[in-house]
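yo

u said u wanted the structure for the complex thing, so here. seqs first:
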Amino acid sequence: MDKCVEYLREHRREHLDWTIELCRIPSISTKEEHKQDVAAAVRWTHELCEKIGLKSRVYETGGHPAVCAEWCHAPGAPTYLVYGHVDVQPTGDLALWDAPPFEPVQKDGWLIARGAADDKGQVLVYLRAAAAWLATAGKLPVNLKFLIEGEEEIASPNLGPFVEQHRELLACDHVLISDTGLIRDGWPTITYATRGLLYKEVRLSGPHHDLHSGSHGGVVANPANVLAALIASLHDESGRVTIPGFYDDVVELSDEQRAQLSALPLDEKEYITSLGSPAPHGEAGYTTAERRSVRPTLDVNGIYGGFMAEGANTIIPARAGAKISMRLVANQDAEKLSGVFDRTVRERVPDTVRVEILNHGACGAYMAPRDSQPMKAAERALREAFGKETALMPEGGSLPILPMFKRLLGVDCLLIGLASPSCNAHGPNEKVLLADLDRGAEAVARLFGYLAG
Amino acid sequence: MDKCVEYLREHRREHLDWTIELCRIPSISTKEEHKQDVAAAVRWTHELCEKIGLKSRVYETGGHPAVCAEWCHAPGAPTYLVYGHVDVQPTGDLALWDAPPFEPVQKDGWLIARGAADDKGQVLVYLRAAAAWLATAGKLPVNLKFLIEGEEEIASPNLGPFVEQHRELLACDHVLISDTGLIRDGWPTITYATRGLLYKEVRLSGPHHDLHSGSHGGVVANPANVLAALIASLHDESGRVTIPGFYDDVVELSDEQRAQLSALPLDEKEYITSLGSPAPHGEAGYTTAERRSVRPTLDVNGIYGGFMAEGANTIIPARAGAKISMRLVANQDAEKLSGVFDRTVRERVPDTVRVEILNHGACGAYMAPRDSQPMKAAERALREAFGKETALMPEGGSLPILPMFKRLLGVDCLLIGLASPSCNAHGPNEKVLLADLDRGAEAVARLFGYLAG
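structre next:
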């Protein structure tokens, strides 16, 4: 293992060139004109896999291709599947970038390029570690598979079907992913939970057309007023969601977990101030750290109706609507709650208006087992590589691939985040701290060793 | 008086030409390029006043001019002020008109032209009646003044100041106005009450920017959710407004008034169906006829916040706002309620968001005395001219000039409506039934006689 680490240090320059080379490919998956670039990034990854000694193949999907590679010559040893993606977000306004987004620049230890953090730099950490093992020991201590796709930034529309069709090819004991962040620069972080999402749109309609509020005000229900009452009814005074059974399946935190969460470096006052709100607010009985990650929420994401321009217009709106989404936590069932939400809305809306409910997506929450062998192994590997205890962090956002892997392959995921909190993924001047990638590669090389048992 | 009526019938053709001539002038007060046309319509009216024997003068105001005319040679007799306007609304989409809006067309007894009903045709009814008296009797039975303006369709911004500056010139015992409608074609109608208006906009803000609802959902108040709760709190379960003291000054209807209102020809089911709403809704304990005219209301006129386009976006909105207006009735005080509304909103909105309240105008309600001598005289005159009992109707909309005349001149207003329910004022193919104008002119000629005592 020491040889591996030595090898990684010696080949740092070469490995950095891999990252730079991959970041030069403008593999923007959302844009049709970059279709060939996404394919090129996948092919480049395939060629690197072959070069370092993996068996690799590019697979066509319904959309952008994916690469599957593996080294499975450790009979009896466990098998790990590394998931990552080499497609990137659009650049946005080029004027906001200090340098062209696909011409990587090094500055003060950072590599600045679209995709440097999300996810090219992080994906390559696993190939660096595998290369180190294969070059120094001629073998890996565990069986290793890779699934690197080109559609993550467009919500992986073909990943589920692909995994379903290739269950045997992808069969494994655990999934390894680095596509999240460090809680602070230099502070190793494992994300052990993500929230699910249930996104609805409620549209109410009353009169055929907007009505003159003088001539007709008072005689029919105003869809905007009814909508407000509906939305208000969805929370009680303590900030809890009033949808029947909403909390029934929620996994409550243990005292230990709460203590651990409260020990994470989050200064509530500083955090709320940075968001701009005058005060914190949320479900009574929980801390800000808990509210934003391990507790479910319900929020209006957008609301509209009637006269929305500057000034005044005296109308009763014919229609009003709201986009309402819920962040779910383990073990809430998005599908079950979807039906309950719809029934609750239809029950609460009076028959003086008409209701239409649109679905804008559902995705399950995910929570990794906290005391699994891979988790313990990763904590050790990260501690040794970063010289610091690992932060175990729940994440408030959603990662649909986690419940997908659980459902289709029956395995859990280990999320080792290597992106800086200031990496600006999806924004201009996306960047990654090269030292974190280097430490990450060393940690992953160690992890492979510890995963062997 | 019979001679007057005879004169009106003999001069019908000539008087119709007046209406056509005035309707030819495209006096659109909202459009700068029609400034000269508004002035031309005012001057045309001034010249007609002089021609029929009134003393007349055009006055400049801060905006479009106004004409004041009078015949005040009946010492000891009461003085009446006729108010009207000769400016009109824009035409809107010309493709929706069957003929050019300023080229009046006669069809099936209707005169079709912009301004035919609102208000040129109705204003001229008073000049026709005055002309008949002056031509046949050489005098009027009462003192008569006219105030015809050119800014009604832009909310009469200079009328209040003008009246205030010319209190003596305009001093009178009562104001006569025909700028409203008939309850049904051929059914004489006096509007005895209008609602006031108090129009606010509440803007709530929380985070500096829209937040990712995954990363930050649950930790700060969502301005759209808070707004919904605020709006919901403004009504109770019985549909009553919960602003403290909101109903304190409301003049409750007498049983006689309620009976009279319920006798008006309004088919609730047909009416609600025509609006398009699935069911009636309003303040408990009142009929639809009462709710839309003599009861105060509170309605959201517009609501906005966050992601309002098609599809889904997982954000916590930084801001949300609602335009909220109240229709007031006699004797609610718009100014007092404005302060109460603001205080109530500030009290009810938690300190987890910031509040801003904009004012979009306030206007008092108006209720004419139901048993005044002019009211009785008008009922008699209308009955004789239309051969039918007069409908006494409260109107749900607002007419700011009514409380203005009351405040500045200390007098009440009599509103004799002559526009058909199907006149389409402000819309394409605006029209007036010529028979209603003719009957109106006869009624007004009789009214002048009965007003004398």
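Chain B touches chain A through 81 residues (CB under 8 Å). The domain at 196-250+296-363 of chain B is CATH 3.30.70.360 (Alpha-Beta Plaits).
cya
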